[in-house]
Specification:
The complex is a heterodimer of chains A (about 210) and B (about 550). Helix content of chain A is about 75%, strand content about 0%. Chain A has about 210 residues and is mainly α. Chain B is built from 16 helices and no strands. Classes of the chains: A mainly alpha (about 210), B mainly alpha (about 550). At the A-B interface, helix 1, helix 2 and helix 5 of A face helix 7, helix 8 and helix 9 of B.
């Protein structure tokens, strides 16, 4: 058997496209697909409840709610750009620059979380919206709002911590290009989820 | 436990005992911090066996209560707790991890010629997550249990039940991550770590079945996770997702729950089908009939499994048109399932069959799974389901699949690979005897339940009209035989770890890379990466004259 190992190499099918990627990267893709289903289930539940409620409120005024959430969106999108730059720097082996770009990503990510918390506090304090009640009737409005944005914010927070670990490691000479790229995948995924949450939660709830 | 699993120090000529994964190192640390997929498999084996007996204990309580028509042994509340804990423990802590986490963990790397899974640390983490989930479940169990049924239907679970719903939901939530990570690990391993020459269509069907299972675990489990989170938010904090009083909808819970929990049925049965494919070819000494069809039917079951959840909800008030679509799709699951049964039968045709214990389990599986599958068609039928919904017919149906199918396959697989796992042979006579006891006990337990259900006995009551007593007593009598059938293998398998005859490398004369390694294998399975040059199951048929 071992004698024709050379011929057998041509039979190797452990590699070929499109799975010719590292195990870590493949694992992260699977995790992302899995996590995508978490959000899908939650957003489907939201849609289901919203569709079956004729009096679903649309309370968000253009100013300040939509402007504020648009700024949050821009902040999060910018963090994806800086993450791309981090991966790019790492592909050139520039660990110093990579750490700086990851730190920039973490700053934007944290800014998003802080802005989001301000938004929450505003809604809770000034608009009297809680998961259980709100001035506009349907208590589920608050429940779905806080449930969905809360789950997303948890993911952003975990992402910031994850990037912190990667940045620290990259700075100390640990971790390879693949590790940075894999963390980037997760980060972009979290951003992409927001691109579904933002229209479904905010834009579809603009006061008419 | 490690002392029991390691070979005795007084083994014949200890100086010549070769090093293998069991005696490579000793002590608790070497087990609890191991990254060896084979040791992790044994950790799972010990833990799921424990949970199996906990779940079994509650089944005993249920069957004892149902011996008499009156609810005399326990109160209705305690009875509710007993059948709920039976379901929760058996499904989340035994059936779902059983074959993948024990046999899959042990065998997939060896079958594909790899040294370990793609992520050994993640594999160990999965076991710890499973154990943490198990501890939370144990906490729920010892502080009053839970009485909602394993389905945790809202609004009873979210609003009215006074039992430990939250702890139970947290336990299932945590264990779910173990399941996701195991599935993820398997998919990456099967894609990335196959030995040279081991193309997709040379993979053992066991690996194909696990691939399909893993995809379900990765895609389905997160939906259950978020559903349980919503349930906990509602119960503990008052979010109103499933509460009509606050605008929510209990049917939404059912949709979300079954979106995972129906595919979860296939998480339990598909690996077992993979085992049966191995057993049938080995003990028929014949190349498997229709390899591609069996492999693809696993994938088809996984895909279709995601499209049929609504058949649990025919009487829930979902739209009739949705019900019709779900009904048709459910019938379609019968096709890939039947393909498997026909192909196994065709594999046996003109094979030289030997009646070794694993093969007896395979026969048991095929017969019982066929009954379980065909009665599933009754339930997929919109009209008939209204009569049978929530009766013992349903209970009998899924026990034929879960016990007659999944557990039979699990035990068959445990016997088949036992020599590989422990390096010891089990006593064949006892094994055949207990397989027979199990088969008889199983049918006596669950066949009467088909009749009871058809006659209209609803599930989940601790008392019933007197005319149902004869069949219920038969069922309870069968359950006690079934219990004996589980205890016998438990005893002789333990016994064989120390006293069984030493197993050769390939006691069954079977094909497959796992039989080219020593019994038990060394820590890294192969000294040299094997090269595969032949198709799967190239058995040479013995000519009969």
């Amino acid at each position: 058997m071992a004698s024709d190992a050379k011929t057998a190499t041509s039979l190797w099918s452990g590699g070929g496209s499109p799975y010719a990627i590292g195990s870590k990267k493949f694992g992260m893709w699977l995790f992302i697909v899995s996590d995508m289903l978490t959000f899908t289930a939650l957003l489907v539940a939201y849609t289901y409840l919203r569709m079956s409620t004729a009096t679903w409120p649309t309370p968000f005024a253009f100013s300040p709610s939509i402007i504020f959430s648009t700024v949050m969106t821009l902040v999060l999108l910018s963090s994806s750009l800086t993450m791309v730059m981090a991966v790019h720097s790492m592909s050139h082996g520039d660990r110093g620059k990579t750490v700086k770009w990851i730190l920039a990503t973490m700053v934007f990510g944290s800014a998003f979380v802080i802005l989001h918390m301000m938004e929450w506090m505003h809604l809770i304090r000034d608009e009297k919206v809680t998961p259980f009640s709100n001035p506009w009737g349907e208590p589920l409005f608050g429940a779905t709002f806080f449930g969905i944005t809360g789950l997303h914010m948890t993911h952003v927070t975990i992402g910031v911590i994850y990037l912190g670990i990667i940045a620290a490691g990259v700075g100390r000479g640990k971790f390879t290009y693949e590790d940075v790229e894999v963390s980037g995948l997760y980060w972009h995924f979290v951003d992409l989820v927001w691109m579904f949450v933002f229209p479904l939660i905010y834009l579809m709830s603009v006061k008419m | 436990m490690n002392a029991a699993l390691a070979p005795p120090p007084s083994a014949p000529t200890p100086s010549e005992t070769p090093t293998h994964y069991l005696n490579a190192s000793y002590g608790f640390r070497s087990w609890l911090l191991t990254l060896d997929h084979k040791r992790i498999a044994l950790l799972y084996l010990a833990s799921i066996t424990l949970f199996f007996f906990i779940g079994g204990f509650y089944a005993v309580l249920v069957r004892l209560e149902l011996v008499t028509p009156a609810g005399d042994l326990m109160s209705a509340e305690n009875y509710n707790t007993a059948f709920t804990l039976h379901g929760v423990v058996m499904i989340f802590f035994f059936l779902i991890p059983s074959i993948p986490a024990v046999l899959g963990n042990f065998l997939i790397p060896i079958m594909i010629g790899a040294r370990d899974l793609a992520f050994p640390k993640l594999n160990l983490l999965s076991w710890y997550i499973y154990m943490v989930g198990g501890m939370v479940a144990a906490y729920a169990l010892f502080t009053g249990g839970v009485d909602t049924g394993w389905t945790l239907y809202a609004p009873y679970s979210s609003t009215y039940s006074n039992s430990n719903v939250t702890a139970t939901a947290i336990a299932a939530f945590i264990t779910g991550f173990s399941s996701i990570l195991t599935g993820l690990n398997f998919v990456v391993t099967i894609h990335k770590m196959r030995a040279p020459g081991l193309t997709w269509f040379r993979l053992p069907l066991f690996v194909w079945a696990h691939y399909a299972t893993s995809v379900i675990q990765v895609l389905g489990t997160p939906v259950l996770a978020i559903t349980l989170v919503l349930l906990i938010l509602e119960r503990s904090f008052g979010f109103g997702f499933f509460d009509p009083a606050r605008g929510g909808d209990p049917v939404l819970f059912q949709h979300l729950f079954w979106f995972y929990s129906h595919p979860a049925v296939y998480i339990m049965i598909l690996p077992s089908m993979g085992v049966i494919s191995e057993l049938v070819t080995c003990f028929s000494r014949k190349k498997v009939f229709g390899y591609g069809f069996i492999a693809m039917s696993s994938v088809a079951i996984a895909v279709l499994g995601f499209l049929v959840w609504g058949h649990h909800m025919f009487v829930s008030g979902q739209s009739v048109y949705a019900g019709m679509v779900f009904s048709i799709l459910s019938f379609m699951v019968g096709i890939p399932s039947a393909i498997k049964v026909f192909n196994w039968t065709a594999t046996m045709y003109k094979g030289s069959i030997s009646y070794s214990t694993p093969m007896i389990y395979a026969f048991g599986f095929i017969g019982l799974f066929t009954i379980g599958g065909l009665t599933g068609l009754f339930l997929a039928n919109l009209g008939l389901d209204i009569h049978l919904h929530d009766t013992y017919f349903v209970v009998a149906h899924f026990h034929y699949i879960m016990v007659g199918g999944a557990v039979m396959g699990y035990l068959g697989g445990i016997h088949y690979w036992w020599p590989k796992m422990t390096g010891r042979l089990y006593p064949e006579g006892w094994a055949r005897f207990s397989a027979l006891v199990l088969f008889v006990g199983f049918n006596l337990t669950f066949f009467p339940q088909f009749l009871l259900g058809y006659m209209g006995m609803p599930r989940r009551y601790h008392a019933y009209p007197e005319e149902f007593q004869v069949l219920n007593v038969m069922s309870s009598a069968g359950a006690s035989i079934l219990g004996v059938g589980y205890l016998i293998p438990m005893i002789y398998l333990f016994w064989s770890m120390r006293y069984g005859r030493l197993a050769p490398e390939n006691p069954w004369g079977a094909k497959g890379l796992e039989w080219t390694t020593p019994s038990p294998p060394t820590t890294f399975n192969f000294d040299e990466t094997p090269v595969v040059t032949e198709e799967a199951y190239e058995y040479v048929k013995e000519e009969k004259h």
